[in-house]
Amino acid sequence: MEVAQVLHMNGGVGDASYANNSLVQQKVISLTKPIREEAITSLYCSTLPRSLAIADLGCSSGPNTLFVASELIKTVEKLCRKLKHKSPEYRVFLNDLPGNDFNNIFKSLDSFKMKLQTEVAGGIGPCYFSGVPGSFYGRAFPNQSLHFVHSSYSLQWLSKVPEGVDNNKGNIYLGRTSPSNVVRAYYDQFQRDFSVFLKCRAEELVQGGRMVLTFLGRRNEDPCSKDGCYIWELMANALNDMVSQGIIKEEQVDSFNIPQYTPSASEVKLEVLKEGSFAINRVEVSEVNWNAFDDWNALDFESERSESIGDGGYNVAQCMRAVAEPMLVSHFGEDIIEEVFSRYQQILADRMSKEKTQFFNVTVLLSRKD
Ligand SMILES: C[S@@+](CC[C@H](N)C(=O)[O-])C[C@H]1O[C@@H](n2cnc3c(N)ncnc32)[C@H](O)[C@@H]1O
């Protein structure tokens, strides 16, 4: 599987789109707001840029895409009022893999900018948006051209499925029964990818530039613990049930592997320290329920989505469908998709009625060293 070609969230604004099924990710963005505020405030006050360049890496397409940029701009405008500074101009770069639905983002830009102008008393500085298609596991921007890099729920995606995981029988990601060579292969791939990411961003950020990165990760140090694996283990259960009923072949499941690694905070820290270009200002681990409707309150987002509570199994299955459907279709074909997600929904509903099910978020605030 060529990840850069196959991996993208479901586009558009339909029932299975990422735009309509990304409330968990929205919740995570709202949880990490204080860290971004701290970062943009210290960055602005220490560098006073006249032209502020912000990049959101793995921006996807939907209500979350422009939310972080709007929040950062509002914070800088508040600081400018307080310090009696003229507003800077803003250059916002939205990056994702080429399969991302950039058209949908571009269509919403005019109304987004108009809304932002009216929300900030006195207006905002000029804003220029650009789409930057390409992998963040490579150079995406010119030398020292960025002040602030943000990425949420994207860096757990690897650049490729690790090599040597053919014996991960019955699993589609790491799981309790994964052999040790498979666990090692996933961790090695994460280390290689994240270190390339850090090297590239170190070249692209100005000195003193900040990065706020949130990974879908884990609290537990064991990479095969439920923290990061359970959601995929239950999808594997749905696929394995279909194998036992002869609907799909065992080899098809055995050769399907999710290109993801959900790191712990210490694994993230270790890579940053090894690479050496960034100081670590903050590390936090938080959690969010699989069914974000469980504990959602709509304080930060004006979204009609927050009004419906809905069915937990359905919500979580739709969230995972928006993320994984293109990969599943590319491997298994279109025909089995409805069946997989209908079984997955039932399995999820059953587990969620019996145990506490949460995603874990690892967030780091880093500064580019001098
Ligand atoms: C779960 S979405 C998160 C989107 C958004 N940041 C949010 O919080 O709602 C992950 C995004 O990361 C993107 N992504 C994964 N690997 C990437 C890579 N190597 N380069 C750029 N984007 C990548 C995916 O295409 C996807 O749109």
From TrEMBL:
Q: Which UniProt keywords apply?
A: Magnesium, Metal-binding, Methyltransferase, Transferase
List, in alphabetical order, the Gene Ontology terms for molecular function in this entry.
metal ion binding; methyltransferase activity
Q: Which Gene3D superfamilies match?
A: Methyltransferase, alpha-helical capping domain, Vaccinia Virus protein VP39
Q: Which GO terms describe its biological process?
A: methylation
InterPro entries for the chain: MeTrfase_7, MeTrfase_capping, SAM-dependent_MTases_sf
* PANTHER family for this protein: S-ADENOSYL-L-METHIONINE:CARBOXYL METHYLTRANSFERASE FAMILY PROTEIN
Name of the molecule in the record: Jasmonate O-methyltransferase
- The scientific name of the source species is Vigna angularis var. angularis
